[in-house]
């Protein structure tokens, strides 16, 4: 499916201005030279999921947000050109901050294990959505 401008027959729900999901949507629409004109704007992922499940519109949400609903068959992932969009997550702390032992352990865990943990956590959702799972290496 190619990206296109929302219509009355196919309304689109976007997150509120300033949300990461909205910024990624605006970027995707811009890359495809499609005007970003959401029919509805909502500030809650749960409200968006409920609206989509009730046939009001389509939307873009992160896969981990809709994982249970996709696995249960309540929502469907649509294959759209240019998707999925992948976000990078960072572990940060102040350079002059001395981390506690528990904070150090958490940082070390995140840097070493988080990617594999997320892979295992998302595997059932990815299979239910019939998506190819690709691990991205850090830059």
Radius of gyration: 18 Å
Proportion in helices: 40-55%
Strand order of the main beta sheet, please?
A: 2-1-3
Low-confidence stretches: 132-139
The biggest beta sheet, please?
3 strands, parallel
The helix/strand class is: mainly alpha
Output mean pLDDT. Answer: 79
How many structural units, i.e. domains? 1
Give the SSE order as H and E letters. Answer: EHEHEHH
Q: In total, how many beta strands?
A: 3
DSSP summary: helix tally: 4
Strand fraction equals: 5-15%
Distance between termini? 30 Å
Q: If you had to describe this structure to a student in words, what would you say it looks like?
A:
A three-stranded parallel sheet has the order 2-1-3. Helix 3 packs across helix 4. Helix content is 42%, strand content 6%. It has one domain (12-129). It is built from four helices and three strands. With 139 residues, it is mainly α. The protein has helices at residues 20-31, 45-53, 63-71, 101-129, and strands at residues 12-15, 40-42, 58-59.
Question: Care to give the gist of this entry?
Answer:
The chain has helices at 20-31, 45-53, 63-71, 101-129; strands at 12-15, 40-42, 58-59. It is mostly helical and 139 residues long. The two termini are 30 Å apart.
